[in-house]
Amino acid sequence: xxxxxxxxxxxxxxxxxxxxxxxxxxxxxxxxxxxxxxxxxxxxxxxxxxxxxxxxxxxxxxxxxxxxxxxxxxxxxxxxxxxxxxxxxxxxxxxxxxxxxxxxxxxxxxxxxxxxxxxxxxxxxxxxxxxxxxxxxxxxxxxxxxxxxxxxxxxxxxxxxxxxxxxxxxxxxxxxxxxxxxxxxxxxxxxxxxxxxxxxxxxxxxxxxxxxxxxxxxxxxxxxxxxxxxxxxxxxxxxxxxxxxxxxxxxxxxxxxxxxxxxxxxxxxxxxxxxxxxxxxxxxxxxxxxxxxxxxxxxxxxxxxxxxxxxxxxxxxxxxxxxxxxxxxxxxxxxxxxxxxxxxxxxxxxxxxxxxxxxxxxxxxxxxxxxxxxxxxxxxxxxxxxxxxxxxxxxxxxxxxxxxxxxxxxxxxxxxxxxxxxxxxxxxxxxxxxxxxxxxxxxxxxxxxxxxxxxxxxxxxxxxxxxxxxxxxxxxxxxxxxxxxxxxxxxxxxxxxxxxxxxxxxxxxxxxxxxxxxxxxxxxxxxxxxxxxxxxxxxxxxxxxxxxxxxxxxxxxxxxxxxxxxxxxxxxxxxxxxxxxxxxxxxxxxxxxxxxxxxxxxxxxxxxxxxxxxxxxxxxxxxxxxxxxxxxxxxxxxxxxxxxxxxxxxxxxxxxxxxxxxxxxxxxxxxxxxxxxxxxxxxxxxxxxxxxxxxxxxxxxxxxxxxxxxxxxxxxxxxxxxxxxxxxxxxxxxxxxxxxxxxxxxxxxxxxxx
Length: 754
Description:
Blueprint: H1 2-20, H2 49-61, H3 68-74, H4 76-84, H5 97-100, H6 103-113, H7 118-129, H8 142-147, E1 155-158, H9 166-175, E2 182-186, H10 192-205, E3 208-212, H11 221-233, E4 243-248, H12 256-261, E5 263-266, H13 273-283, H14 287-290, H15 296-315, H16 332-348, H17 354-365, H18 373-383, H19 412-420, H20 436-455, H21 470-484, E6 501-502, E7 505-506, H22 508-539, H23 546-556, H24 562-565, H25 575-595, E8 601-602, H26 609-624, E9 631-637, E10 654-657, E11 660-662, E12 665-667, E13 672-674, E14 682-684, E15 688-694, E16 703-708, E17 726-732, H27 738-744, E18 747-749
Parallel strand pairs: 1-4, 1-5, 2-3, 3-4, 8-10, 16-18
Antiparallel strand pairs: 6-7, 9-15, 10-15, 11-14, 11-18, 12-13, 16-17
Helix pairs in contact: 1-2, 1-21, 1-25, 2-6, 6-7, 13-15, 15-16, 16-17, 17-18, 21-22, 22-23, 22-25, 22-26
């Protein structure tokens, strides 16, 4: 089921889109020769066209689903209630479908109607099929683990962020009366020989050795493998009480034989704001430190705010790019250092220096880890909620709900009692985020699980019971893609105006067009050649190289082959959507080439949007004879959403379309940024006029929204100091302060993931 149904489903949407434009698989004409009517999406507002194409494919290939689309149209009231419910994964399917479909087939249906709920449905599926014990977190007791160990079997702690098993091991050693017989060594450069000597001595004496952070000693990993191998070979000479403990973060160079030989343990830290705060007060802020300041009221209030800030910046990671562009490893050392600075400033200064505290904590202690300027802006805005004179007031609220506030000055235990009463799972509002952030989190977790399942699936399947083999599926998809590969962009077909010079100089945007043509032609050549080669390899006409084999797997999984990604533009789309997007990009450039400059430009359609924007500024600089380094864009949002409504290009600058708002929306009536509507993760922006201006000064009341090529937002640092994923910042009118939108993670995207 996993292999046939899931792998088949991943390609169904593509095959249907390419072959019949998101219609059901074509059936033979009836006796009268009349063609079957195209099946329409019964719920266009609830089911996207991509998901509907997937549903059509599922219905056509899995017998149990036959008739489901027709039933949706006939019993629309029941199906609408089912799809619209907030807990679709817990709702009973309309009609007989609940008994007709197996548990796994219901997962396939849920992927169509409510993808984000799969993350919960997977747990329910495992409970039904395997048992509840497989989804419950088991508490690790080293006493139980120790029973399965011996002198030749190492115990391997697989580390995760925020979890440290050292304390647990020390407590167990104390219980076993081995506190003085446990030698701990943190690995790193030059520590390998020392570790070998410790193990050699411990083998004779019957003591324990714990080698911490094995991932930091990459060059010594072969040495570790030899040490573990020698334990089995020299078992008779080893003391029975000897034990070897290892800790390591996940890494691809950790010796596989050691993993196979050892007992693996992992202990993820409790998740959630409440658990984070309690952990900080237990591990970092103890009762003694809590009372250790002469300015007790200010110290306790500010310390609580600092711990809350620490928990907030760590827990924002769960929201992905909405939380941080880059995931940073904020840890207890940042909190401890900031605590020491806070105590020092309170003791030495009569008046609390909030500005200095904010700078040291935000720009140095925590900010020292932050490499993205927009993340730094977010960090400082979060900190401003906690390092403020208002926090000294009793009842100062950290969020609008009032659930989270600055408690009155009290004892350490009273503060712990307050934390114990906080909700187990924090709503997005405490982070300053919209309720839609939860949907984004659920969808991302679902995608991660599906990608993991898919990555461990074998490349076999089908063939039996009339199903297609993997070779047949990939060959069919490759042939369809090859037939649809667009022709190369040819300069000979250019409109006369394209190469018309002004004052003896070629238009800057024409140069941009030619550069884009070269990039796309290179990509098209690579696509056509590799599609031909993979088909030959399937037929056995050429050798299936490692690259072609990876391409085969990618096509089977509906993923963009790495052979294409290496020379393509950034994109997170699956293969089916990626192809359609590529065709639209080629169509846009071909229209520009053959018909002349358009009245508006699809900036997301470029390989390198920054080059187009620079070309626009260069044209303005030449026209008005001003230095280009004195120019910046100002922005005017137009009322039009459709590019066809724009008939003429502007006198200066360019009209841009095709952008999306993530974390907020544009209100066309109020003409400003507003909160997203519930359930709508992205909003399509209307056309925007990019207007070059000399010595431009932005309006302080506008929200400076960063624009990114993809929803990941993170990129690599370029020579300009900016992320390669970042395009530019767009100023948009807002009736709220910028901090409101910064905390929501509001940003503009050039493309979506579907």
